[in-house]
UniProtKB/TrEMBL annotation, chain A:
It is an enzyme of class 6 (ligase). The lineage of its organism: Eukaryota, Metazoa, Chordata, Craniata, Vertebrata. It comes from Acanthochromis polyacanthus. SMART domains: E2_bind. It catalyses: ATP + [NEDD8 protein] + [E1 NEDD8-activating enzyme]-L-cysteine = AMP + diphosphate + [E1 NEDD8-activating enzyme]-S-[NEDD8 protein]-yl-L-cysteine. The active site is at C250. Residues 387-475 form the E2 binding domain. This is NEDD8-activating enzyme E1 catalytic subunit.
Automatic annotation (TrEMBL), chain B:
Belongs to the ubiquitin-activating E1 family. ULA1 subfamily. This is NEDD8-activating enzyme E1 regulatory subunit. The keyword Iron-sulfur does not apply. CDD domains: APPBP1_RUB. Pathway: Protein modification; protein neddylation. It holds the Pfam family ThiF. Residues 13-506 form the THIF-type NAD/FAD binding fold domain. One of its GO terms (molecular function) is NEDD8 activating enzyme activity. It comes from Acanthochromis polyacanthus. GO terms for cellular component: cytoplasm. Keywords: Ubl conjugation pathway. GO terms for biological process: protein neddylation.
Length: 476, 511
C-alpha cells in the first residue's frame, strides 16, 4: 500500500522558491562580505584563544550546518571586520544584544535609541549606572561596550528610528530589534519592505535585509526571524499581538469599579480640567510631583465609590502603562536573537523558521513554529487592498475601518485621492489647520467627495513609513 | 538616609516588584547564593541575580586564567559584578570545589542555592550528595556547544504563590454560600428600571436564572451542551425589549451568556491539592514541620469543617459591566467571605501551631510542591528512569538525545581526562572514541536506544565550546529558577531542562 502525501501546489512551489532564495541570501551575505575584505588588518586587540569558542563553528564541518556552509578560517575575519549589524533599542533587550553580539565577534555595531536613562532601568539594563541617569541610552551603551570589549566599535544614535531614511538602513547586513512598541515595529517593517527590489515581479535577494525581532513582558518573551518579502512580516501576524487595554469612557466617567478606572479618570478628565501645574503643562509620567497629584486625586475618586486598592505604584503603572520587567527574560530572548544573528551571518546553522515563544512562569516553556505569510498582507503583499463601501457611505466609515480593522490597526490615517486630475487631501488629523479644513469631509458621502469606483486612495499613518495604496470598490 | 535608600530601591526595582512583590524582594535580599566556576555561563547567571538585588554571592573557582575567558575568573568576575549593584555583597574563593568537598564540605551548607556550572560528573555527584543531605537546593548548569542543560535537585520545594496564568474564577455559583444568596435576594430583576437592569452584574444574573432553572429542573444544574444552550437562551429571553419588541442593548446580559460555560463549572478541589492533603507531611504535623505543611493542614481542616468539602473562597471577582455600587457591593460579598474563611484557616493554624494562614487561604487552589529525584537516583543503574529515556528516544531527534550525549561526554572525560574534539586535529579521531563512550553508557544502563552518528560527530565538533549566546540563554533561565527557589513564588522546573540553540527548541525531562 503506497501512501501518498498530497500538498497543495501553492505550498510545494513556495517551499522550493523560498528554499532557493534562502540559499541565495545566505550566499550573498558571504559574497558581499568577501568582496569587502582586503586581506586582514593586523588586529591589535586579539589575544591567544580569544575567539576559540566561535572558531569551532566556523572552521569545522558538521552534520547540522546549513547546506551552504563551508568551513573556513576567513569567516572569523569577515565577522570581526566587515559584518555590520544594526541594533534598534538600547533598553532591556538592547543592552543584552549589544553585549551578546560584541562577545560573539561582531564589532561593527550601530545602536539607535531615542530615550534617556531612568532609575527604573537599572534592574536590567546593565550597561548603565546610577550616575548615568538622564543621559542618552544609545551613547552610554556604546561607550560601555567600546571601553569594556576591546576592538568593538559601536556607533550610537540618540534618535528616533523615523529620523533615518532608507539610505541609513540599507548599509546593514542584519537588523536586530529590541523595541517596546508595535507601532515602531511596524514602521521598521515598512522600511525594510521598501528596500526590496523587484525585477519583472521577481524579488532580488540582494535587497533583502533580515530582521530579527525580540519582545519581552514579565516572564514571557518571543523572538522571530523575518526575511522581508519572503517570510511572514510584522503585519502578517498583527493579530498575534494582544490589543491594548483602554477602558470605555462611560466606565471612567460615571461608573468606575476598579482602582485603574479612578486613575484614568484623573488622567483623562480631571487633569485637563484642573491644569494643576499650569495651563500648557501636560501630564509627565516621569515627574514624581505629577504622579503624586494624580495619586491623591485618584484616592479621592476611589473613596467616592468605595473602591479600594489605589496605591502610588498602581497609579504610576496606569499612567505610564508600565510593563513589568526582569533581567532574566531579557537575557534569554536577546540571547536567542543573537544566536540567530550568528547563524544568518555565518550560515553555520539553519536559522529559526521563524517564531519562538518563551514563558518561564511555570517551569520553562518554549514553542517554535512557522508564522505564515498573509496573502493579502497590508504591508508585504504586492496587491493593493480593496476597500468595499457603498457610494453613500460617509468618509468617517472608511476611517473607522482603517483604525478598527484587526489587520490594519492604523492610528490616525491621512487619506488623499486624485479627484478630477488634482491631488485632494480628504482628511488629515496631524496638522491642526488641515484637520479643521477637512473635518467636514468626514460626514460627506464618498460620492459627494467625487470618488469613483476603482479609485485609488493613498493612506499615510505612523504605522507605515510609506503611503499605502487602497482601491475603492463600490458595493451596490 | 534609610528612607532615601528605601525610596531609591523602590524606584530601581519597580519593574520587578510588580512581579514578585515586596515580600519576594525581601527573600531575594536575604539570600546568599554560591556559583561554582565563573565561566561565561557562570557570570551570566550571576549578572541576572545581582541586577535584581540578591543579598550576597560567593564564586568558587580554582581555575587559572586562560585566553578563552580572560575577564571571567573569580576575582575579576566578582569586581565586575559588584559594580552592577552596590547593594549586593560579593565574595570569591579561589579553590576547586573538589578541594572544598575534601576539606570542608559544610562550607556549602550556608547557601540558599548552590549553582554548579560546567562541573565534571564526579564533582557533580559528590556535591549533589552533600547538598541533598543538607537540604540545600542544587542547580546544575552546563553549556556545551549549542546545547544548554539544567538540572534542578531539590528534595521538596513548596510554592504558595504559583501565579498561574489562566486560572478559572472561584465564584461558587454551583454551591452559593449564604451571604451570596442573601445578596442575590436583594435584586428583583423584574421590577428594576432600565438603567439598573442593564447594569446588574452578570454573576447576579446567572445566579437569578439558576434559581429559576433549579425549580424547573429538579435542582439540577445545566449539564450537557443542550441544557447549557437552553440556559443561555433562557437568559437571553430576559433581555429587556423596547416598545416594538426589539431587544435592547444589554451588554451585561451578553456577558452573562458568554460566561455560562465557565460559570457552571463545578467547584472542586484540584487533584494536585488533594494529593497534598493525602501526603505524609500534611498528616503528621510535629514541632519541626515547616510552616507550609502546617498551613496546608489547616486548609484541610477547614475543608472538612467550615468549608463543607470546599476550599476557602478566593475572594476575587473579575471586572464586569455594572454600575459602581452594584459591582463594589458584589465584590465585597466575596471579599468578606474570603476574609471569614481565611480567619477560620488561621484559627486552625493556631490550634496546630502559631503561624499565618491568610496567604495560603487565598492561594489554596494553586498550592504546589516540587520534588526532584536526587542525582544518585538518576545515575544509579537500579533507579535510572529507563521509561522516560526510551519513550522519548522513539523519536531519535528528541532533545533526550542531547542528555545522553552529555552523559557520554562526561564518560569520555572520565576516561581521557579531557573533552572530545577540543583541538582541530582531535575531531576526527575522537568520533570513534566518543562512540565507544556512548555505547558503554547505553550498555551500562541497558538502554535499548539508537543514537545517530550525526550527534556523535556534532559533539566532537563542539569541542566543549561555551559560545556566549548559549551561555546567556542559560544564564537568564538558571537565574530565574534560582529566584523561584529563593522567593517560593512561581513554579520551578522538574527536573531536567535541555535547550537546543540549533533549532531553538527545548524540553523538560523528568530523570
Amino acid at each position: 500500500m503506497i501512501s501518498v502525501v498530497f500538498y497543495p501546489v501553492y505550498n510545494i512551489k513556495s517551499y522550493i522558491v523560498m528554499h532557493l532564495i534562502y540559499h541565495l541570501i545566505l550566499l550573498n551575505i558571504h559574497v558581499i562580505l568577501r568582496m569587502v575584505v582586503d586581506g586582514g588588518s593586523g588586529n591589535t586587540c586579539e589575544w591567544e584563544g580569544r575567539w576559540n569558542h566561535i572558531k569551532k563553528f566556523l572552521e569545522r564541518s558538521g552534520p547540522f550546518t546549513h547546506p551552504d556552509f563551508e568551513p573556513s578560517t576567513e569567516s572569523l575575519q569577515l565577522m570581526l571586520e566587515t559584518c555590520k549589524i544594526l541594533v534598534i533599542g538600547a533598553g532591556g533587550l538592547g543592552c543584552e544584544l549589544l553585549k551578546d553580539l560584541a562577545l560573539s565577534g561582531f564589532r561593527n555595531l550601530h545602536v539607535v535609541d531615542m530615550d534617556t536613562i531612568d532609575v527604573s532601568n537599572l534592574n536590567r539594563q546593565f550597561l548603565f549606572r546610577s550616575k548615568d541617569v538622564g543621559r542618552p541610552k544609545a551613547d552610554v551603551a556604546a561607550d560601555f561596550i567600546n571601553s569594556r570589549i576591546p576592538g568593538c566599535r559601536a556607533v550610537p544614535h540618540f534618535k528616533k528610528i523615523q529620523d533615518f531614511d532608507e539610505t541609513f538602513y540599507r548599509q546593514f547586513h542584519i537588523i536586530v530589534c529590541g523595541l517596546d512598541s508595535i507601532v515602531a515595529r511596524r514602521w521598521l517593517n515598512g522600511v525594510v519592505l521598501s528596500l526590496l527590489v523587484y525585477e519583472d515581479g521577481v524579488l532580488d535577494p540582494r535587497s533583502i535585509i533580515p530582521v530579527i525581532d525580540g519582545g519581552t513582558e514579565g516572564f514571557k518573551g518571543n523572538a522571530r526571524v523575518i526575511l522581508p518579502g519572503m517570510t511572514a512580516c510584522i503585519d502578517c501576524t498583527l493579530e498575534l499581538y494582544p490589543p491594548q487595554i483602554n477602558f470605555p469612557m462611560c466606565t471612567i466617567a460615571s461608573m468606575p469599579r476598579l482602582p485603574e478606572h479612578c486613575v484614568e479618570f484623573v488622567r483623562i478628565l480631571l487633569w485637563p480640567k484642573e491644569k494643576p501645574f499650569g495651563d500648557d503643562v501636560t501630564l509627565d509620567g516621569d515627574d514624581p510631583a505629577h504622579i503624586q497629584w494624580v495619586y491623591q486625586k485618584s484616592l479621592e475618586r476611589a473613596a467616592e465609590f468605595n473602591i479600594t486598592g489605589v496605591t502610588y505604584r498602581l497609579t504610576q503603572g496606569v499612567v505610564k502603562r508600565i510593563i513589568p520587567a526582569v533581567a532574566s527574560t531579557n537575557a534569554v530572548i536577546a540571547a536567542a536573537c543573537a544566536t540567530e544573528v550568528f547563524k544568518l551571518a555565518t550560515s553555520a546553522y539553519t536559522p529559526l523558521n521563524n517564531y519562538l515563544v518563551f514563558n518561564d512562569v511555570d517551569g520553562l516553556y518554549t514553542y517554535t513554529f512557522e508564522a505564515e505569510r498573509k496573502e493579502n498582507c497590508s504591508a508585504c503583499s504586492q496587491i493593493p487592498l480593496d476597500l468595499h463601501f457603498s457610494s453613500s457611505s460617509k468618509l468617517q466609515e472608511v476611517l473607522d475601518y482603517l483604525t478598527q480593522s484587526a489587520s490594519l490597526q492604523m492610528k490616525s490615517p491621512a487619506v488623499t485621492a486624485t479627484v478630477e486630475g488634482k491631488n485632494k487631501t480628504l482628511y488629515l488629523q496631524s496638522v491642526a489647520s488641515i484637520e479643521q479644513r477637512t473635518r467636514p469631509n468626514l460626514s460627506k458621502t464618498l460620492k459627494e467627495l467625487g470618488l469613483t469606483d476603482g479609485q485609488k486612495l493613498a493612506v499615510a499613518d505612523v504605522t507605515t513609513p510609506q503611503t499605502m495604496l487602497f482601491r475603492l470598490c463600490f458595493t451596490s | 538616609i534609610m528612607a532615601a535608600t528605601k525610596a531609591s530601591k523602590e524606584q530601581r526595582y519597580d519593574r520587578q516588584l510588580r512581579l514578585w512583590g515586596d515580600h519576594g524582594q525581601e527573600e531575594l535580599e536575604n539570600a546568599h547564593i554560591c556559583v561554582i566556576n565563573a565561566t561565561a555561563t557562570g557570570t551570566e547567571i550571576l549578572k541576572n541575580l545581582v541586577l535584581p538585588g540578591i543579598g550576597a554571592f560567593t564564586i568558587v573557582d580554582g581555575h587559572t586564567v586562560t585566553g578563552e575567558d580572560v575577564g571571567n575568573k573569580a576575582q575579576a568576575a566578582t569586581e565586575l559584578l559588584q559594580e552592577l549593584n552596590s547593594d549586593v555583597s560579593g565574595n570569591f574563593v579561589e579553590e576547586s570545589p573538589d578541594k572544598l568537598l575534601d576539606n570542608d564540605p559544610e562550607f556549602f551548607h550556608r547557601f540558599s542555592v548552590v549553582i554548579g556550572v560546567q562541573l565534571p560528573e564526579s564533582t557533580c555527584l559528590r556535591l549533589g550528595s552533600v547538598l541533598w543531605s543538607a537540604s540545600v537546593p542544587f542547580l546544575v548548569c552546563k553549556t556545551y556547544g549549542l546545547i544548554g542543560y539544567m538540572r534542578l535537585v531539590v528534595q521538596e520545594h513548596t510554592v504558595i504563590e504559583s501565579h498561574p496564568d489562566n486560572a478559572l474564577e472561584d465564584l461558587r455559583l454551583d454551591q452559593p454560600f449564604a451571604e451570596f444568596q442573601n445578596h442575590v435576594k436583594s435584586y428583583d430583576l423584574d421590577s428594576m428600571d432600565k438603567k439598573d437592569h442593564s447594569h446588574t452584574p452578570w454573576i447576579i444574573i446567572i445566579a437569578k436564572y439558576l434559581e429559576k432553572w433549579f425549580s424547573e429542573h429538579n435542582c439540577q444544574l445545566p449539564k450537557n451542551y443542550k441544557e447549557k444552550e437552553a440556559f443561555r437562551q433562557f437568559i437571553r429571553e430576559g433581555i429587556l425589549k423596547n416598545e416594538n419588541g426589539v431587544p435592547e442593548d444589554e451588554e451585561n446580559f451578553e456577558e452573562a451568556i458568554k460566561n455560562v460555560n465557565t460559570a457552571l463549572n463545578l467547584t472542586k478541589i484540584p487533584g494536585a491539592v488533594e494529593d497534598l492533603f493525602n501526603s505524609e507531611q500534611c498528616n503528621n504535623i510535629t514541632s519541626q514541620t515547616p510552616s507550609f505543611w502546617v498551613m496546608l493542614r489547616a486548609v484541610k481542616e477547614f475543608v472538612h469543617n467550615e468549608g463543607n468539602g470546599s476550599l476557602p473562597v478566593r475572594g476575587n471577582v473579575p471586572d464586569m459591566i455594572a454600575d459602581s455600587q452594584k459591582f463594589i457591593n458584589l465584590q465585597n460579598v466575596y471579599r468578606e467571605k474570603a476574609l471569614q474563611d481565611a480567619a477560620a484557616v488561621s484559627k486552625h493554624v493556631e490550634c496546630l501551631l502559631q503561624s499565618v494562614g491568610k496567604v495560603c487561604s487565598k492561594n489554596a487552589s494553586f498550592l504546589r510542591v516540587v520534588r526532584c529525584r536526587s542525582l544518585a537516583e538518576e545515575y544509579s543503574v537500579d533507579s535510572v528512569n529507563k521509561d522516560e529515556i526510551t519513550s522519548c528516544m522513539d523519536n531519535p531527534d528528541s532533545e533526550m538525545v542531547f542528555y545522553l550525549m552529555l552523559r557520554a561526554v562526561d564518560r569520555f572525560y572520565q576516561q581521557h581526562s579531557r573533552y572530545p574534539g577540543v583541538y582541530n586535529y582531535q575531531v576526527e579521531e575522537d568520533i570513534s572514541k566518543l562512540k565507544l563512550s556512548v555505547n558503554s553508557l547505553l550498555q551500562e544502563y541497558s538502554l535499548n536506544v539508537n543514537i545517530k552518528d550525526d550527534y556523535i560527530h556534532e559533539f566532537c565538533r563542539y569541542g566543549a565550546a561555551e559560545p556566549h549566546t548559549v551561555s546567556a540563554f542559560l544564564g537568564g533561565s538558571a537565574a530565574q529558577e534560582a529566584i523561584k527557589i529563593i522567593s517560593h513564588q512561581f513554579v520551578p522546573f522538574n527536573n531536567t531542562f535541555i535547550y537546543n540553540a540549533m533549532s531553538q527548541t527545548s524540553a523538560t525531562l523528568q530523570l
